[in-house]
Every structure is written in C-alpha cells, then in structure tokens.
Amino acid sequence: MSNKLNLSVSPHIHSKNSTSTIMRDVIIALLPAAVAGVVIFGLRALGVIAVCVAVAVISEYIFNYITKKEQTIGDLSAVVTGLLLALNLPANTPLWQAAIGSIFAIIVVKCLFGGIGCNIVNPAITARVFMLIAFTNLSSAAFPTLVDTVAGATPLAILKDGGLVSIESLVFGTIGGAIGETCKIALVLGGIYLLVRRVITWHIPIIYITTTFIFTFILQDFDILQSLSFTLSGGLILGAFFMATDYVTSPATKWGKVIFAVGAGLLTVVIRTWGSYPEGVSFAILLMNILNPYICSWTPRKLFGGKGK
Amino acid sequence: MKNNSSMSVFLKGILLENPVFVLVLGTCPTLAVTNSVIGAIGMGLAATAVLVCSNTVISLLRSIIPETVRIPCYIVVIAGFVTIVKMFMQAYLPSIYNLLGVYLDLITVNCIILGRAEMFAGKNTVSKSALDGLGMGIGFTIALLSMATIREILGEGTFAGMSVPFIKDYTIAFFTKAPGGLLVFGILIAVVNVITHGKAPYKKDFACEGCPNAAFCHSSGECANKEENK
User: In Å, how far is A134's CA from the nearest CA of chain B?
Assistant: First the structure.
C-alpha cells in the first residue's frame, strides 16, 4: 500500500502529508495528556501506556507477518491506537487486561477488517467498550496519587448522585478517571495543536462538546455550573478531539461532520443521564461510527466541476 | 448435492455443509447454550436424536404428506420426538434438563431440523435421510462443542466444570455473554470458510430448498434465476 494519501479523483494536489506524518502529529498532540496522566496517577500509568503501545505494535507486526501482508507498523497508526486505548484506561488496570484490550483493538477491530483505513469502527474506542464489558473491575477508576482524595466514585458518578465537583479540579485533572481524560488543559493543548497543523477540522470536536453542553444545560434546569461540570467530566474532551475525529470512521464532508457530532453529543448525554453506565462517550462515538456510512450517503461530496442537484 | 453416495451424505453435514458454520441455521440455540460445554453437548445430542428420528419418519411419510400442508405435518412429527427426548432427559439426566431449560422445547422450531426435513428428508430415501440427520446432528454437536470450549475456557477458566490451571486467574467474562458468543461465532465461520475454501456450496446451489423462508416466500424460484442471470 502506498504511503501517500490520495483521497479523491484527479486533479491531485500533492501534499507532503502522509499517514505517518499525520499519525506523528496525533502522537505529539497526545503527549501532554499522557505526561499529565503519569504526573497525576504515578508511574503505574506509564506502565499501562507502555504495555498498550508495545502490544499494539507487536500484534500488528505478527498479524502482518502471519498473513504475509506488507508491514504497516511503520505508519505509526498502531502506536496511536495503543496510546489512545491506554489514555482511556484507569491507571490501576491490570497489565494483562491492558494487553488483551490492545490485541483486541489491533487484531479483531483493525486487521481482520483489512488493516488501516478499512476498519468500520475506531479500534481504540471499540477495545475500550470491549474491556468495559469484559472486565467488570474496570468500572472502579483509579484515583490520583498526587493529591489526597477521599476514595469514592468518579466525578460523573458523583454528579449523577447530585453532588458537586470543583471546576478547578476538573480542569487540572486531579480527580478520578482514566489516565488521559482528566487533565483538560493538556487535552485542549493537544487539540489546538491538531487544529493548527490542520490534522483535524474544528467541526466535530467543537460541535460535539457544544451539543453535549447545551443538552445537559437543558436537562440540568439551566444550572450553568452543574452542566459545565458535566461537560468537563469523563472522557468527553479526549473523545471529541482525538477519537471522534478519526478519518476512517467519521464523515469527510462538512455537513456529515455536523450530523456526526450532534448525534454523538445527544447520545452521550442520553447515556450519561438515563443509561446504567456513568460514562457514555465511548458508546456514543461507537454508535456514530456504525452510522457513519449512512451519514456519508446522506451528505455526498459535490464533484468538482459537476452540476449541483 | 451432485455426489449422492451414502458416505458423502453422511460426511457433508460435518464440515462442507455444517449446519451452523456453513448453512448458518440454528443460530439461536447456538448462541444461547454455548457458554458451557456440558450444555452444548446436551443440546447437540438431543438435537441429533430428534433430527435422526424426524428425518426417518418424514422420509417414510413423504408420499402421504400433501405438498401444501407439509410444514405443519413436519412440525407435528418433530414436536412429537422433542417431547419424547425431553421426557427422557427429565427422567434420566435431570441436571442437563434443568441447564437447557426452555431451549429443549425450542428444538421443535430449530431451523436445522425443519430445514433438513424440507431440503432432504422430504425427497430422499429413508436410509439416506437417517444418515443425513446423523451427519447434520454430529456437525451441529461439533460446532456447539467447539464454540462452547472457546467460550467456557476464556470466559470462566473452566472446561466442562473442571478448572483450567493458569487461565483460571485470567478470565474474560465477555465471552460468556451474548456479544462474546457472536464474536466467537463470526470468527469460527471465517475459519471454516478458510478451511473449506471454494468447496462449500454457495447459497444458489441450494436454491429455494435451502431457504428457511421458502415455504412463505411469494417469489419462490425467482432469486435462483436472478443469480444465474448475473
């Protein structure tokens, strides 16, 4: 497979971007969140990240070797999948469980469907949902080692029970949760980097977060502080910037992206409010991934020079 | 379909026309009972017994049964044998009887049994129908057993109730649940496709006889023609 990213029919405009440069940008953008996670949750978080990334790369190498396919680990997409999965896991995840999640993401979700570009759903999200169903111990998330916190539920669970979480701790990430999802500053920093490098467009993250906020705002009887806490809790920022914007599983057109983001936002709030799980971001993105082909067929790309409708 | 020797009639049910992995019939009991090896073997043997008996009787009665009401007639014959098997298991194997619960009764509407009556027993001799029933039953049992082995070992760390060392500490509950069943089912279908590459019959080879909906289909015979025109 060529490493060049030719998306549409001629005329081709040559771009220096290739799969590996884009993936490298995504890794750079994820680094602040990863570093923040290690600082907040301790070295155990680093172990989870290392295991996820290493296992993802190794399983892709072995799969390609056994099926005699061209090696694709050089495009760094397996590193991104492993890193994203690790950032979605609590720091106290047993390492063997992290490894199985990584293998599931690469082998079952990605390679069995034909490798990079052919997977119908985002590998990291699907593996996260798989692990949520597979290992019941994961629902009790890790707590920061940096600050003393009273052992208890994740912010979303607290909020669901009507409690309050300070916005400050939500922004700096000194709260319970997955490794990469708690420090919002690092995530937004990475998101801005991706926007500046034009790896992603603003449509999906901004509309996704805004939809979630507005819907929560209505459901929370227009309490702005409470709905802001809901929006900043859980994996919403991480999911909106890094997972919902996956090229393969999100629409390519502007209006497609809008539909995708609004749908994901509504589903997130619906699952958070009425579902049995406290967090709904991964399920919402997964469901919208599955609807992606339909969204693409509703919002066809206008051909260059072609006639309008 | 072309080669009709007794041996091939018997053998085709095991791999080439495996009712679960190639014909994709009987999916409901397949997913429901395969989270334990004992349940899978019980289900497979019960279905095999019903399949052999019903195939034999339906084949015996094939010239008497009127074409238009054949499905109700088949169901009556099958339900009769299911009741016998169920009572037998309740008397002699109460633990398996309790484990399988409602799925024993549901063998009546198992599409493998109805499918074989429709596709094979209704138009073949008694001995061949019995052999076909036996082959299909064994194929069904092997399929259930292979799925249940994977699901029980990975999901609970046990095999037929005996704990497996090492894996016991690393169980993945996902596999005992419905999504795990579908995942294992899909992967095994893919594996069987690779093994039988190019040899297994395609859908059009069965034409309408192989379709569970054939009896109720308004456009019977048309889809086979469409395939040929392509």
Answer: 4
